[in-house]
């Protein structure tokens, strides 16, 4: 059952709650924009994810859903529903799977509510899609697009998309210049964190060894990225390195982190939100995977290499490893360095042939 374009003038898109997942919804946002070119598209997102979309070609407005502040508890949900009801949205597209997303759209009296029938929320949807075994195996990018396609909302352009402003890029260049990194310097990003849990994290001393080796081979400067909770890991990496590096973990906003990753020539990372940001900006990257499922959350990019080892217990999707963390201990620094060298050489060869 397709939705007629002419009946839709305003759309509310409920975003997912994690940065990486939200980045992987950007092809779905493009499909919405292309299918409803004259509609106003607003994204409802939590304070962590919202900055991703404050500058985005498919989004006209970002509405903050602050579950820990003004929208906390039942009273907060009702307040948000009243705010949304006053906006008279014609269609709610729920990219988040939780019942909370459907309940708020229903309370806001949005007449058309589209999403997967997950978390027992099917009765709250007017345009629901069942999730079968095959759907659960889709890469997250394809998962969101598949739901929309059931209602004729499609796009032929499936690449990720994020954007920074010229002022943001200039501010980051100025910040890096303060650390002695010029615009012509090759910049290697090291991203050792992963917010879901320690099971996803490769080891600081191995990140340090990779950074030292690649900085030497490529004559590159090194910057260590991450959120506030990853500052200690970043400090451990800096202490273990023989090459000077700049630690930016815990010192950037989401928008600044985007500009910093965009500036990198190469990125070494765990499976994480910054990994997906790098993929969206086309930054070549090597990602170390262990406990998580690379088939559904791998970087959506042709400029990415995954380094992982098959083990009998991975992917387990656990926050903490209950045994010996063999999925990560098996990944060596030499493997990551070799993967980075191969990818960088391949990208340079493509660039020399005029392919970007």
Automatic annotation (TrEMBL):
One GO cellular-component annotation of the UniProt record comes to: cytosol
What's one Pfam family here?
Glyco_transf_9
Q: Member of which family?
A: Belongs to the glycosyltransferase 9 family.
| Transferase keyword on record | yes
Keyword terms = Glycosyltransferase, Transferase
Q: Which InterPro entries match?
A: Glyco_trans_9, LPS_LOS_Heptosyltrfase, RfaF
Q: Write down the NCBIfam families for this protein, in alphabetical order.
A: heptsyl_trn_II
Q: Which organism is it from?
A: Geobacter sulfurreducens (strain ATCC 51573 / DSM 12127 / PCA)
Q: Name one GO molecular function term.
A: ADP-heptose-lipopolysaccharide heptosyltransferase activity
What Gene3D superfamilies has UniProt attached to this entry?
A: Glycogen Phosphorylase B (3.40.50.2000)
Q: Which reaction does it catalyse?
A: an L-alpha-D-Hep-(1->5)-[alpha-Kdo-(2->4)]-alpha-Kdo-(2->6)-lipid A + ADP-L-glycero-beta-D-manno-heptose = an L-alpha-D-Hep-(1->3)-L-alpha-D-Hep-(1->5)-[alpha-Kdo-(2->4)]-alpha-Kdo-(2->6)-lipid A + ADP + H(+)
Can the keyword RNA-binding be found in this entry's annotation? Answer: no
One Gene Ontology term from the biological process aspect of the record:
lipopolysaccharide core region biosynthetic process
Q: Where are the transmembrane segments?
A: none
EC no. given is 2.4.99.24
- Its name, as the record gives it, is lipopolysaccharide heptosyltransferase II
